[in-house]
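Customer escalation, tier 2.

The customer says the design service returned an amino acid string that "doesn't look like it belongs to this structure." They asked us to rerun it and document both sides in this ticket. The original structure tokens are below, unchanged.
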């Protein structure tokens, strides 16, 4: 596929690609309690993730982010894709991965926050980033069924997250 045929137009909707990974160990999931400088999400738990860099594809980016934030090399599987409409011409394409932790590796704390193993059945007892109550069950279901889920996020006039799951 040639670059000439791509019909790139700066007036068209564009997305910033990001990854989000959930690592599992028995009945626990690894989340990161976000650092205090994360406006709007400070002190909340989130998956492990970040931006896809130039020249990377989502799987490599997910592996790199997990390595940077935990010190671990992991095998992961794509379980979901979420298109996030931020209300402007620039949105976010979020690739959701799930992997297994290989053992009791030591967790590293970094600038992103402090990683912690949380029991999956007690996640509602913790302060999670707003969409994790949707994402984690969908990702775990997709993993167990060897499938991929697709969803779209948008925000209403009050800034409240709206989620549409493609069936």
């Amino acid at each position: 596929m040639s670059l000439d045929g791509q019909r790139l137009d700066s007036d068209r909707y564009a997305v910033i690609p990001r990854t989000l990974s959930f690592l599992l160990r028995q009945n626990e999931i690894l989340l990161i309690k976000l650092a205090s400088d994360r406006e709007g999400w400070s002190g909340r738990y989130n998956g492990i993730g970040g931006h896809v860099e130039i020249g990377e594809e989502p799987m490599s980016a997910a592996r790199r982010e997990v390595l940077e934030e935990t010190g671990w090399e992991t095998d992961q599987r794509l379980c979901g894709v979420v298109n996030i409409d931020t209300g402007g011409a620039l949105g976010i394409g979020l690739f959701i991965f799930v992997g297994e932790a290989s053992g009791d590796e030591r967790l590293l704390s970094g600038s992103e926050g402090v990683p912690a193993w949380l029991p999956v059945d007690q996640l509602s007892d913790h302060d999670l980033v707003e969409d994790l109550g949707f994402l984690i069950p969908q990702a775990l279901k997709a993993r167990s069924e060897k499938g991929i889920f697709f969803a779209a996020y948008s925000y209403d006039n009050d800034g409240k997250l709206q989620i549409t799951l493609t069936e």
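Tier 2 assessment: The sequence is consistent with the input. Residues 55 and 61 are 10 Å apart (CA to CA). Helices lie at 58-70, 132-144. Sent an explanation to the customer and offered a walkthrough call.
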